[in-house]
């Protein structure tokens, strides 16, 4: 009897045949692995996408420098109106500064959407200005502007009334997205609503060309303030650079591995019990312990690859659906995380299959053939 089975039925054909003989169990395994891949890609993709998209919107304001109060968060939703508006008049007088736009950051309690309270003339002067899809700029305290993405999502048009910060505002203009917030209201109106008279959350500053010189001059006015260049801020808008998000992402990744591990472990354990006699026959025909391990791990590999590809397909389909139904929600899928999700699925599945596979390889052919 040869050391291993070298007949016409190769290991590859055998494990493919075994998978076809158990379609329901194979489908459930593929589905479970796909869920793991979708879980990892959706969590990481949504986190990275929202952060990257927010960084681009802030960059699109047209400022070179952000001036915030001490210990302020890079997430503007947590900003407080604690800076005196008069500081803007001091900053604009600096020889290295070209324009300053005081900005009040507001968060709508219902939608958690960021709203900018702005001095329209100054904010508009930071870059090439707002591009109006329709309508005009706000003029009255109860008027607001919306960007085209939120207008599309909420089916808004000029003349509609929206409730922001528990106050009604009439939409006077729809502008192109990419200027930081989704909604813009008059600075004074925002200050009155939150009781922040003559106070703002931050200043957008445009230098005359030398960003570092302007940054140094602004720090001399009040060294306690946090003054970042726009390039520094944008570089921070990455999920890997945010310590607050790392534990969350790691938890989701570990959860995905555990799901894959448990599902494959249960599937392979049950399959080994069902195929005890079959394994005994194979060992009687000359299969070595290594051949049995390769057979079972090969089946797991096929299931994992199919499940991973199915999960990636579902994720891309979800991305396309989100793009159509909710343009404000960004899902960023990078090649690194796509490959990483497949690697994590293989890791979890291999760990789950290892114990049953080595257990099966140790079966005594005589005992296995007598198993009922």
Q: Outline of this structure?
A:
It is built from 13 helices and twelve strands.
How would you describe this structure to a colleague?
Helices cover 53% and strands 16% of the residues. It has 372 residues and is an alpha+beta fold. The protein folds into 2 domains: 11-53 and 245-369, no CATH class; 70-224, no CATH class. Strand 3 and strand 4 form a beta hairpin. The longest helix is centred in the first third of the chain and has 37 residues, at 23-59. Residues 1-9 have low confidence and may be disordered.
Total strand count, please? 12
Distance between the termini: 26 Å
Q: How many distinct domains?
A: 2
Instruction: Name the quaternary structure.
Output: single chain
Major sheet characteristics: 10 strands, mixed
Please state the overall shape, judged from the principal axes of the Cα atoms: elongated
Provide a count of the helices.
13
Overall average pLDDT? 81
What class would the helix/strand composition place it in? alpha+beta
Proportion of helical residues: 40-55%
Q: Using only CA atoms, what is the Rg?
A: 30 Å
Q: List SSEs in N-to-C order.
A: HHEEHEEHEEHEEEHEEHEHHHHHH
Q: What is the strand content?
A: 15-25%
Low-confidence stretches: 1-9
């Amino acid at each position: 009897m040869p050391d291993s089975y070298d007949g016409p039925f190769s290991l590859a054909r055998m494990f493919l045949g075994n998978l076809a003989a158990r379609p329901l169990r194979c489908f459930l395994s593929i589905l479970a692995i796909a869920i793991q891949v979708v879980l990892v890609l959706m969590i990481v993709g949504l986190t990275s996408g929202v952060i990257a998209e927010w960084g681009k919107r802030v960059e699109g304001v047209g400022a070179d420098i952000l001036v915030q109060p001490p210990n302020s968060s890079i997430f503007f939703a947590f900003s407080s109106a604690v800076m005196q508006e008069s500081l803007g008049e001091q900053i604009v007088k600096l020889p290295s500064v070209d324009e300053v736009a005081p900005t009040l950051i507001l968060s709508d309690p219902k939608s958690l959407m960021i709203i900018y309270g702005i001095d329209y003339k100054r904010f508009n002067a930071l870059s090439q200005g707002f591009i109006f899809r329709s309508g005009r700029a706000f003029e009255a305290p109860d008027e607001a502007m919306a960007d085209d993405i939120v207008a599309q999502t909420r089916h808004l048009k000029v003349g509609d009334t929206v409730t922001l910060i528990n106050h009604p505002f009439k939409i006077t203009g729809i502008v192109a997205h990419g200027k930081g917030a989704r909604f813009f209201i008059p600075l004074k109106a925002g200050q009155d609503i939150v009781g922040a008279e003559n106070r703002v959350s931050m200043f957008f500053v445009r230098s005359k060309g030398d960003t570092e010189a302007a940054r140094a001059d602004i720090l001399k006015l009040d060294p306690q303030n946090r003054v970042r260049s726009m390039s520094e801020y944008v570089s921070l808008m990455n999920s890997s650079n945010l310590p607050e998000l790392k534990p969350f992402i790691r938890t989701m990744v570990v959860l995905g591995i555990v799901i894959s591990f448990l599902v494959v472990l249960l599937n392979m354990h049950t399959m080994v019990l069902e195929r005890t006699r079959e394994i005994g026959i194979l060992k009687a025909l000359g299969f070595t312990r290594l051949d049995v391990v390769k057979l079972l791990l090969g089946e797991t590999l096929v299931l994992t690859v199919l499940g991973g590809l199915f999960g990636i397909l579902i994720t891309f389909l979800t991305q396309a659906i989100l793009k159509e139904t909710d343009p404000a929600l960004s899902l960023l899928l990078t090649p690194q995380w796509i490959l990483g999700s497949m690697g994590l699925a293989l890791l979890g599945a291999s760990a789950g299959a290892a114990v049953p596979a080595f257990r099966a390889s140790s079966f005594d052919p005589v005992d296995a053939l007598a198993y009922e």
